[in-house]
Amino acid sequence: MRCRRSWPDRGRDRSTRSRSSCIFLGVWQVAAQTLAEVAEQAKPGRGKTVVGQVLQEILDRGEARGLAKGEAKGEAKGLACALTRLLESRFDRLPGTVRRRIATARTSELDDWFTVSLGAESLCEVFPDLGLDLGRD
Q1: Which has the closest alpha carbon to 104: 91, 113, 92, 115?
Q2: Helix (H, G, I), strand (E, B) or coil at 34
Q3: Secondary structure of residue 74 in the 3-state scheme
């Protein structure tokens, strides 16, 4: 079986990546072929149709998971942007430590900080664990 390089470089050399790709594709072909044989025994004359339906179901589930992950990332990015704008409007320029913290935060943290920032008198109230010295960045 001839494999084309289809994944971006993830720190592995080409020969390792190529072998991994071939192994994965080979296992997938064996699994699909075995599945087709089992389906054909269970439903004579309809094996390929059943396999196609199963494979489509697998793809649909993968697509749904990918969409959910994308939505979560988009929500976090939007919340981070909204929090940054709110903090800048209330406390002027944000220190780099605050910006970095916001950029790497989970959605739940961003949500908590947003809620606290609505009534906070200073950045120190929103981020008490950062030990901010508001005199410098």
Answers
A1: 113
A2: helix
A3: helix
